[in-house]
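In keeping with the milestone schedule agreed at the kick-off meeting, the structural modelling team has produced records for the first pair of proteins. Each record is given below as a sequence line and a structure-token line. The laboratory manager (R.T.) confirmed that both were archived under the project's standard naming scheme.
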Amino acid sequence: MQKFIAEPSFWEILPEASIGIMVVRAMKTADEVSSEDKAAIASILNEANATANQHLTSNTISENEVVAVWRRAYQLFKTKKGARCSIENLLKRVLKGNPVGPITPSVDIYNAISLKYALPVGGENIDAFVGDFHLGIDEEGGKSFLPIGEEENAPTLPGELCYYDEEGAVCRCFNWRDGQRTELTDDSRNAILVIECVDGARLPELHAALDEFADLMRRFLGAEVAAKGIVTKDNPEMTIVE
């Protein structure tokens, strides 16, 4: 992978969006993270679950603006029936009193950032990519995609917004469903991390989230932040590997 590229087809439907991108290298594996640091990460995740309540002004999940803005965005492209933004799924758990629990240290950190700022956050194993990392509309559909936890190919739909590389889709329906090929695991060392914002008024929060994300990855996973920046319509590409 050399670049992250948000294609013109993305900006045509979401011109006010901004995408935070961070590349981290030499992360500790899950086994290398001390029990004390795992406990600290779990505490940060617990605090984020509690903090997330400030974003929930209605008991109807779709009536909360941090979710409603994504519901509107998802109406602008073809989606699989029932597909929802990743932050909606996390906040729904908080609303139902079923807080997000620990999975693996790297994932726990990005879930904590997602909950605290009510912004979708994801991560991929950068070593598994083939070619550049793109975000755009798949006009023809049919990009290969094996969802996490599944055994059968579930290709993209014509007109679907997805992340992809030369091998196929990486994450379908914008940030709805991640694939096995590039997923972060307990043994991942190098990652590309993404924070998404479709509300132009929340750009300052995106900056804050990205900075805090970087600090946590350094502090708890010993990661080297090799690249960090925000992609916008006026700056639609970011170099990932020099």
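The second protein of the pair:
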Amino acid sequence: MQTNNKVNIFALEIWDDEGAKCTFYTVKYDGVDANETDLFFDKYDAIAAYKQANQELLSFIIYAIGEDHGAVDELFNRDENEVKGLPVQRKVVLDEITYHYPNFPSRLYALKITNSIAILFNGGVKDDETNQKSSLHLIWREACEFAKRINEAIRDGSIIVDEENRKLTNYDGSDEIIL
């Protein structure tokens, strides 16, 4: 199911690679200035009702995943079909740190490649029980489509996973990944 014609061409680019444990990638549509993850954080940072939750989610991603633990299954435990929803679901304790986000208002969709590489997409406010009923439906479907294309490119060798260096490269070794 194609949810958006823009999904036809997109690039994978590094969003943050400064953490000790995980490199984050994001997707950016061809011809668009901002990547999907920045669009999410910029949008919800500008809405007073979601600013604190937005900052908590950003901190969870940068510190809990990027710096402290990596993209471990315990922190990527909210299954949303082809993608994972962040933040973590239920209470999780890692290295004596408790991560718990009850009734968290938003979701950011992500694809775990390895414990040291994850791809962040877009997201929004979770305003119903399921993604199918939520206003997030189209953004979630779009994230699932990105994930399918990325996983297929990894399977067919178009994208090479370099776990040792925590990076993704094109089949020819270049950093430019266009799908």
